Amino acid sequence: PFAGRGAILSVPTANADDKARELGLEGIAPLVPVETRPWGWRSFLVRDPNGVLLDFFHVAVETPADAAS
Question: In angstroms, rounded to a whole number, what is the distance separating the alpha carbons of residues 54 and 3?
């Protein structure tokens, strides 16, 4: 059986803060709180029942494609 180790699935959402509150009402606490990441995503992590990490995000800051180089 798959233990979920090493798998991260990025899940776009309209607003990561709202999604974190919604999941919190269902008793699902984030492993990593909602933060704005250096690459411009506002996101948080939860673990699904299979052990897969779910990275709920929305784009908070648009960055030019060439800024990564």
Answer: 14
Nearest of 26, 65, 68 to residue 46 by alpha carbon: 26
Task: Compute the distance between CA of residue 67 and CA of residue 41 in angstroms, rounded to an integer.
Answer: 14
Can you give the pLDDT of all 69 residues of the chain as single tens digits? 667 678 899 999 999 999 999 999 999 999 999 999 999 999 999 999 888 999 999 999 877 765 555
The Cα–Cα gap between 69 and 55 comes to 24
The tokens for 21 are: 């509150």
Residues near 69 by Cβ (< 8 Å), separated by ≥ 6?
none
Whole-structure pTM value: 0.81
